[in-house]
Amino acid sequence: MNTTNETAYAAFLRERREELLDRIADAASRSGRTSEDVTLMAVSKTVDASKMIQAYEVGYHTFGENRPQELVRKWEASQNLDDIRIDMIGNLQRNKINKVIDKAGLIHSVSSGHLAEAISMRAASRDVTAHCLLEVNVSGEETKSGMAPNQAKRVAEQFMELPNMKLEGLMTMAPAYDASAARGSFNGLRELCEELRCSTGLPLPVLSCGMSGDFEIAVEEGSTLVRLGRVVFDPSFADAVNVR
Length: 244
Ligand SMILES: *Cc1c(COP(=O)(O)O)cnc(C)c1O
What we know:
- 42% of the residues lie in helices and 15% in strands.
- By secondary structure, it is an alpha/beta fold.
- The protein binds pyridoxal-5'-phosphate (PLP).
């Protein structure tokens, strides 16, 4: 690619992406895997569409948004780009499902059986398949969204009865600034996913975990998709906050 006209920001995005891919590859090798086993998502929720498109141009193809309206805006801005996917990673209210149902790649934030039913209804009426992850509160912190691990077992069973729904795996957010608690929750997510594979017979290939401050730990513990925002887009993001 011709980089002579690249802006300083695009150059930053490109170099940072190379660094992140190296760090992901190192962490993946510590879990007997390669970087090919891990999707690097750029969480574009805090940047405008033009920065998202610059990120696409340096190689990102999977993006994450946490607000339905913003997902729609970014989706509209990227209609002429090939091979781009925008996932819904934030809390999804039932009255907003219609907005994103035919636009979101993967919905990471299915946090209850009721929400799964509502998504299924909207997907069926639009004749699309909703690809979903169950958001699980593995750490049990009160401030975290997501269902309890036991509830995830019930909802995963329920999923198999719901039309136009495909369960692809699990998602979690770990406690911040606490490396050992983060490792514990990623490890718990992986074990829960293994249990659900046995009980449902579904392949459940996706483990969505790891953010800017803890993604190497997540990859060591089996993450197949890291959701990175600040470390991708913010040149001033201090690596010092990365827990190890
Ligand atoms: C914002 C957000 C991220 C990215 O967080 P960073 O710490 O900026 O990497 C990941 N997942 C979810 C659900 C988010 O809302």
